[in-house]
Amino acid sequence: MRVGAHLRQDENPVATAEDLGIDIFQMFVTDPQGWKKPQPHPHAAEIRESAIDVVVHSSYQINVASLNNRLRMPSRKAVEQQAAAAAELGAIGLVVHGGHLKDGEDAAAGFENWRKLFERQADKGGFGVPILVENTAGGDHAMARTLESIERLWDAVGDFPEAGFCLDTCHAWAGGEDLVGLVERIKGITGRIDLIHLNNSRDEFDSGRDRHANLESGQIDPEVLAELMKTAGAPGVLETPADGISADLEYLRSV
């Protein structure tokens, strides 16, 4: 298994990744709660040249599915800018949440907005890195909570070569999806899993709540998480509480 961790605010993530002995790390390229354009990273050359893979997580407020122009348009721009920053770092992809609509809005329009994201960028030469759509934990009008919604989303974007998929285990559990056999069910829809966000959950099954726990201290059997990781055949990134990351890595290396 190729495993790593999300390094939240590390100025020199390669040094931290080397200290942890991980194969991959995830990072932000801008304030995850804001809209600012990413600035050149002071350790960009070191990140590019490192043998440790990097993946970038987009900022949280992005919602390319939205029917609100005042949210959708800056979201598209943010994906374009953060993908360019990810490409500059040699990243394997940019993780983007599936997004959601408001009550009463037409889901088909939201899925079409996802398609338009890729269509518009294709006219500009593409993103430069895969866009890894991540499943989400809650919301009745989420674009990527259930397998049904993921299938509809993949019908819209799956034919674009830069479309990839990130499976978050806590989100799937909170969204009401049984983790046993989930890899096969997801691949039956998307044909691929490019990245695993390997997280336990503080909350019960189908809670709709996105609260991560360390691998051996949550509601999910850690053996199920380890087996899912092995089955997926994709690198895994821990987004678990920072003070338990070392123990999480030790557990994964022992199974």
Automatic annotation (TrEMBL):
One of its GO biological process terms is: base-excision repair
- What Pfam families does the record point to? AP_endonuc_2
Q: What is its EC number?
A: 3.1.21.2
State its cofactor: Zn(2+)
NCBIfam families for this protein:
PRK01060.1-3 (NF002198)
What are the boundaries of the signal sequence? none
Name of the protein in question: Endonuclease IV
**What keywords sit in the KW lines?**
DNA damage, DNA repair, Endonuclease, Hydrolase, Metal-binding, Nuclease, Zinc
A GO MF annotation of the entry reads: phosphoric diester hydrolase activity
The UniProt similarity line reads:
Belongs to the AP endonuclease 2 family.
Q: Xylose isomerase-like TIM barrel domain location, by residue?
A: 15-254
